[in-house]
Specification:
By secondary structure, this protein is α+β, with helices and mostly antiparallel strands. It is built from 17 helices and 16 strands. The protein folds into two domains: about 325 residues, no CATH class; about 110 residues, Immunoglobulin-like (Sandwich), CATH 2.60.40.10. The strands form five sheets. Strands 8, 9, 10, 12 and 14 form a five-stranded antiparallel sheet that branches. A four-stranded antiparallel sheet has the order 13-11-15-16, with no helix packed on it. Strand 4 and strand 5 form a beta hairpin. Helix 5 runs antiparallel to helix 7 and helix 5 packs across helix 9.
Length: about 475
Amino acid sequence: MNDHNKKAVNETTIPVQEVVLSLYKSADKIYMRSVNGVFDRWRWAMVWLTQLFFYGVPWINWDGRQAMLFDLDEKRFYIFGLVLHPQDLIYLTFLLIISAFALFLFTAVAGRLWCGFTCPQTVYTEIFMWIEEKIEGDRIARIKLDQAWTSKRITRKTFKHAVWITFSVFTGFTFVGYFTPIQSLAAHLQTFDLSGWETFWLGFYSFATYGNAGFMREQVCKYMCPYARFQSAMFDQDTLIVTYDEARGEPRGARSKKAEEHANGLGSCIDCNICVQVCPTGIDIRNGLQYECIGCGACIDACDDVMDKMGYAKGLIKYSTQHAVDNQLSKQQIVSRMFRPRVLMYTGILTVLVIGMSVSLYMKADFRVDILRDRGVLARMTDDGKFENVYTLKLDNQSERVKDFRLMVSGLPEAVLQIEDEDGQQKAFSQLRPFEARNIVVELQVADGAIRTGSHPVYFEIRDLSTNEIVKEKSVFIMPSN
C-alpha cells in the first residue's frame, strides 16, 4: 500500500454509535389476585391487631390523660402507667437493641416474617388493595377497567382515590395524635387551628401512606427497603423460607382435572401461574428464593387451593428450609435443626436484654435526688461553736402524683440536720407537686471535737411518705482542723 492510500485510510471517519443506558427499570403494574387460606387469615389477623392498637390507643384515657403520649413540649413520654423523661434515653437504646436482636432471631428462624405480616408497608398495602378490590372489582375486572377510558372508570377511580385519601388523612391524624393530645388535636383540626409542625406531619404522613400503599407498593419492598438487601446475611440452609418443591413439581404442564398427577411424565405443577398472580411483589417462586420475596405465604395458599381442586397433595409450595428440600427432611428434623448455635445465641442475648430492661423499669424510682456540696467553703463555724457543711439537694418529682418527702441523714450520728427550703423557711419535710423540681439547702452541723479532723462519709436518705420508698445518696462531711 503506497503512502497516498495509507493517508486515505487514516483519514477515514468511523461512525460512532451512541448507547443510552437507563438506570430505571420500568415495571408493569401488578394486579394482585385475591386469595384465601391459612396465611391470608394470619395476615388479616395481624392487620386487625396492629391497626386496632395504632388507631385505638390514643383515645384511651389513663389516670385522666392520654394512655400513650410522647409530649415533646413538656419533654415527657407517657406509656400507660410509665412516665419517661429525656434522661431516660437509655431505655430507648435498650428498645432499639432488643428490636435489632428480635429481627435477627426471627429472620434466622423463619425468614422475612416481619415483612410478610407486620411491616407497615405490607399492612397498609393490604388495606389499600382491599379497598381497591371492593370498589373496582376482582383482578380481571381491574385489568379491564384500566384498558379503556369510560365514565365507569373515571367514577370508580375517583371514588377509590377519595377513600384512599380519607384513610390516609385519618392515619396521619392518628400519628400526630401520639405527639399532641389527640382530643385537642381533633378540636384544632375542626377549626383549622393546627400549629406549623402539626400541619407538616399530618400532611407528610398522609402523603407517605397514600403514595407508598396506593402507588409504590412492591417498589418500596424491592428498591427502597434495606432489609431486602442484607437479609441474606441472616439466612442459612436451615432458615424457614417459602420454597417450591422442584423435584415434585417439574416438569410442569397443563392437563385435565381428570388426568393423573404424573400423567405423560409431568410433575405436580399444572403451570396455572396463580402463584404469580397472588404475589404482592410479582415474582415467580418457582424460580427459587429471590430477595423480592417477603414471605407472606400468599403463593402457598393459592397453590394449596389448586392442589385441592386437582385432588393432589398439598405442599408443592410450602414453608420449609433449603436443607430440608435438598435432603427430604421430616418436620421433626426441621424443628430439631432450628436450635442451632446462631438461634440459641440470639435467644440468649434477647432474653437477657428483655429481663434486664423489665427489671430496670420495675425498679425505676419516680423521683430523683442530686446532692451538690458547697465547694466555696469547706466548713464554717456557727455562732454556737459548731462546724457546719452546706449542701444543695435537687429534688425532682417525676411522677404524676403529689409527693411528701422526709429527709434524714445517716453515717454520722453526731450530725444535726437543718433544712431550709427555697422560701427560706425551716422544714423537716418537703411537698412536691407532680413533675415539680425544687432545690433545698441543707446544713449539717457537728459539735467541735465530736469527730476527728478530715473527710467523713455521710448519707442523705430521702423517704417518700406515700410509698415509703427511700432514695439514698452519698456525700462527705469535712471537719477542719482547729
